[in-house]
Amino acid sequence: MTDTPTQLFIGGAWADAADGATMPVDDPATGEIIAHVADAGAKDAQRAEEAAVQAQEEWARTAPRVRSEILRRAYEIVVERTDELAHLMTAEMGKPLAEARGEVAYAAEFFRWFSEEAVRVEGGHGVLPDGRNRMLLSRRPVGPCLLITPWNFPLAMGTRKIGPAIAAGCTMILKPAPQTPLSSLALAAILKEAGLPDGVLNVVTTSRAGEVCEPLLRGGRIRKLSFTGSTNVGRLLLAQSAEAVVRTSMELGGNAPFIVFEDADLDKAVDGAMVAKMRNMGEACTAANRFFVHSSVAEEFGRRLAERMGALVVGPGTRDGVDVGPLIDRVGRAKVEDLVADAVERGARVLVGGRTPEGPGCFYPPTVLTDVDPGSRLMDTEIFGPVAAILTFDDEDEVIRRANDTPWGLVGYVFTEGLDRALRVSERLEVGMVGLNTGLVSNPAAPFGGVKQSGLGREGGRVGLDEFLEYQYLAVPVR
After folding, report:
1. Residue 25 to residues 73, 81, 387, Cα–Cα distance (Å)
2. Can you say whether the dihedral through the CA atoms of 50, 56, 58, 62 is positive or negative?
3. Beta strand pairing status for 433-436 and 201-203?
4. What does the CA dihedral 46, 58, 447, 189 come to, rounded to 10 degrees?
5. Strand partners, 35
6. Which domains are delineated in the chain?
7. Which of 92, 109, 251, 283 is the catalytic position?
8. Would you say the pTM of this structure is higher than 0.85?
9. CA-to-CA distance for 139 and 119, rounded, in angstroms?
10. Pick from 30, 110, 22: which is nearest to 443 by CA?
11. Which residues are responsible for catalysis (predicted)?
12. Four-point Cα dihedral 301, 306, 309, 311, nearest 10
């Protein structure tokens, strides 16, 4: 970790926190401290804000092709440093190296995608219906942005926000999660190397999120907030953003239903379940949370899933052959333990897993529960762990009602071989995304986001750039 920056990145320069504070970064596989990074306070946030505001006007005037080429160079550097970035991510977050390498590729693709979209920002022209004025429409950057990213995908969630902001011509303050600051600091160094001008991106690592973020949102100079995290924190940030009418994009929690109909191909369904449940050890907002399986195939599906889950190897992410790394910290593991205990107390049967291993680290085994009581707490809580809870159903209308019976609406998964049913059920699910006979929906070229309390706006795809742009309408008299 000796080559990874550990200071704040403000105005193109590395600096300690104004009060000299630092915070530790732990390896969740061992509990050992792997680094100390600068712990920013209010003064540091003010410096970052000033740098972003001062850089905004010139950056907005920068040619789209220039912004595009910076993103393209950053993409190439990220790809070249895949192993270095993967090891860094595994050290601070815990995911196995194979998954970490996959995230590096996913993260890099956001830079490539938005490098291509940067030169395609278009307006419009036309004569208004009364014939008196011509209408000229132009697109402009929304202005300085505050980007807040989570710990579960520390590199990809950064590039998913930074990419469109650069493409649109916005300056930024990035506040990464305190558990995983190193990936964001490494990303800042890469963007500086790629030619990003000073002040366009500022990275403020902190354990004092309220002290740093609230003044920025209430002050009026930050014009855009993009947040990925829990719904509870999202509500708080929305309230703070209201005072200065800050534009917001919120990618919040999920409670994804995974529906397996009686005509489903069970091989596909189990394969899809392994991806939808076990990607990132289940620590993903897109993770399948509630498995609704038709009663005629529930026993067989549960048996196959338990067999696959039980075969996974748990251990430190750097060890060869490991499939499942540790959870992020002991608080996260304790939450999973409590949810499983509650379900078992209510009558759930444990097909595999369910017991915390002894020893160091924050490990929890892949777990499959069946005969789960609908009143169990894990039915209305984002589990964020490797636990699959199976319930049965017999009727299509019934399962749709139960799938929609949640305040969240990020993603749903549907497994059926019938085209009519596939389209009908997908259209009735109250979610922003549907995986149809697949357990993976995320892609930089597709709009990512949910409905209800799963968020506002979309990230990725062409609409991901729109989130960082405003329209200006110019009326020109017809002569």
Report:
1. 29, 21, 26
2. positive
3. unpaired
4. -60
5. 25
6. 8-252+454-475 (3.40.605.10), 256-443 (3.40.309.10)
7. 251
8. yes
9. 12
10. 110
11. 251
12. -120
For tokens 């389209």, the residue is: 423
For residue 44, which of 244, 216, 241, 248 has the smallest C-alpha distance?
216
* β-bridge pairing 367-370 and 288-294: unpaired
The percent of residues in the chain predicted with pLDDT above 70, rounded, is: 100
Give the sheet arrangement for strand 133-141, strand by strand.
124-127, 133-141, 469-477
Question: Is 251 designated active site?
Answer: yes
d(CA 386, CA 395): 28
Please state the three-class secondary structure of the chain as a single string.
Answer: CCCCCCCEEECCEEECCCCCCEEEEECCCCCCEEEEEECCCHHHHHHHHHHHHHHHHHHHHCCHHHHHHHHHHHHHHHHHCHHHHHHHHHHHHCCCHHHHHHHHHHHHHHHHHHHHHHHHCCCEEEECCCCCEEEEEEEEECCCEEEECCCCCCCHHHHHHHHHHHHHCCCEEEECCCCCHHHHHHHHHHHHHCCCCCCCEEECCCCCHHHHHHHHHHHCCCCEEEEECCHHHHHHHHHHHHCCCCEEEEECCCCEEEEECCCCCHHHHHHHHHHHHHHHHHCCCCCEEEEEEECCCHHHHHHHHHHHHHCCCECCCCCCCCCECCCCCHHHHHHHHHHHHHHHHCCCEEEECCCCCCCCCCCCCCEEEECCCCCCHHHCCCCCCCEEEEEEECCHHHHHHHHHCCCEECEEEEECCCHHHHHHHHHHCCCCEEEECCCCCCCCCCCECCEECCEECCECCCHHHHCCEEEEEEEEECC
The tens digit of pLDDT for each residue in 304-355 reads 999 999 999 999 999 999 999 999 999 999 999 999 999 999 999 999 999 9
Mean pLDDT of 178-195: 98
- For the record, the structure tokens of 78 come out as 């990220």
Give the residue among 356, 401, 345, 400 at the shortest CA–CA distance from 378.
345
Token pair 């989130």: residue = 467
Pairing status of strand 13-15 against strand 455-456: unpaired
CB neighbour list of residue 435: distance below 8 Å, 6 or more residues apart: 272, 276, 411, 412, 413, 414, 441
Q: What are phi and psi of 323, to 5 degrees?
A: -100, -30
Amino acid letter for position 53 = V
CB 374, CB 290: distance < 8 Å: no
Q: In the structure, what pLDDT confidence band is assigned to residue 2 with cuts at 50, 70 and 90?
A: low
Pairing status of strand 22-26 against strand 33-38: antiparallel
Mean pLDDT in the chain?
Answer: 97
